[in-house]
Amino acid sequence: MNTPQADIGLIGLAVMGENLVLNMEERGYTVAVYNRTSSKTDEFLSSKAKRKKIVGGHSLEQFVSLLKKPRKIMFMVKAGSAVDEMIEQLLPYLDKEDIIIDGGNAFFKDTIKRVKYIEEKGLRYIGTGVSGGEEGARHGPSIMPGGSASAWPEVKEIFQAISAKVGTNKDIPCCDWVGPNGAGHYVKMVHNGIEYADMELISESYFLMKKLLGMQPDDIHKIFLEWNKGVLDSYLIKITADILKKRDPHTKKFLIDFILDKAGQKGTGVWTSQNALELGVPIPTLIEATVARSLSALKNERLNATKVLGAPKGIETNISRESFIPLIHNALYTSKILSYAQGFQLLRAASNEYGWDLQYGRIAYLWRGGCIIRAQFLEEIKQAYETKPDLQNLVLAPYFSEALKKYEQDLREVVSTSLRVGIPIPAHCSSLTYYDAYRTAVLSANMIQAQRDYFGAHTYERTDMPGSFHTEWTKE
Ligand code: NBP
Predict the structure, then answer these.
(1) Rounded CA gap, 102 and 98, in Å?
(2) How far is it, in rounded angstroms, from Cα 56 to Cα 66?
(3) Is the dihedral of CA 420, 423, 428, 429 positive or negative?
(4) CATH topology of domain 8-181
(5) What is the value of pTM for the model shown?
(6) Best probe residue, ligand 1, of 10, 22, 75, 78 (max atoms within 8 Å of C-beta)
(7) Using one digit for the tens of pLDDT, what is the confidence trace for 107-118?
(8) Is 449 left (phi over 0), alpha (psi -120 to 50) or beta?
(9) Which CATH architecture has domain 188-438?
(10) Is the domain defined by 442-476 classed in CATH 1.10.10.10?
């Protein structure tokens, strides 16, 4: 058999796995690799991994024999049943204290079950979010690990070495322990939920400039480039600017104008929305962003509906670009604050529900670099939670409440204009409604309580005395 020489093993040589292996090797670690289809292992070893400290196994037994103890084995395989299959195939070769790490996009409830299952066998399990796509995996992703706490010191050095770094000296890793069982995968799930909202809000801003102001992609490119220098400075704004200037190699025209308006999704947005509904946490902007993708997917139905119902007017000639573009900027910024506030509200509720003791300031920092939602703005979120760890809602932190009060009217102006001309910007609308509802001391739900009591004797509470009341509504 082989000499155990590898510091860590990785199973799953697709896009993410290959790049993580190269990243680990570059940081000085010897990595063992395995892939279900062994031709991919050979291909990798003879190409990208050639002459590097990367060794491969054709069988799981051989792969495991390459690893130093306690063994650390990271999965980067398709989320779902593939993970359970791999666990079962691997277990016969592992010893107590060994560590299995699932770096895929697992559903957090599956991770909760897997941590329990593996710990009962005397081994350890980490479920970790990895964000940043191919580029992040290769040069520094954001890593959000959770699970068996005793496994963290064993993998901390490798994980923090390969993660993105932020701070003035680029020495603060975007990787830290998140919490027990499914906490790491949960935080990754909410990251993706916020990512959906961020992307939708940016797309809506672009859409307003295109449809309402009649601007061309290169003009909109310049606006996003400018916005990336201020409070909106973020990876998603930057790539939006890049996208808008890209030319189609065939037609030499702007590529964005040839891309079908039909967005796909892999499910993390839906998981975030479902869990928020389960926990009773209002995250309307995040949910709306998921709904918007579903609506976009109905391309054929929309084409038909345009013929039957007519297209909205979409353009108002008396709006000046100079005065409206700053309003779009401020509307995007306020909506962004409100969507992050909702995401952190969800984290707070989940932390209580699942007993995780999540550290919100630290999570904001994990997302500061490497991941898709990385943004300057997260620095302020970190500050807000460090100043007041029991902050009820991000919108109440002085930095954010001041911004909301300052730009609220601009969001209202943008939303009302879009409603008047029929340009759908649902995530902006939801953000504004969330803001208005959240700061309204007396809402309309007294009527709902009365209706529920009327037809179902569900009882209601009163404003003037404590207790639970029922009224015979139909009696004189
Ligand atoms: P994929 O999600 O496309 O998975 C492909 C890998 O899974 C291949 O190595 C494949 O082996 C292996 N696999 C499958 Br499929 N079924 C298997 C099974 N039953 N047993 C063992 N191996 C199996 O790869 P990816 O896009 O690199 O993503 C990996 C994980 O990272 C996923 O969970 C994904 O959600 C997550 N993630 C992806 C990104 C991204 O940007 N792509 C970002 C962040 C997280 P084979 O070669 O034999 O088919």
Answers:
(1) 13
(2) 8
(3) positive
(4) Rossmann fold (3.40.50)
(5) 0.96
(6) 78
(7) 999 999 999 999
(8) alpha
(9) Orthogonal Bundle (1.10)
(10) no
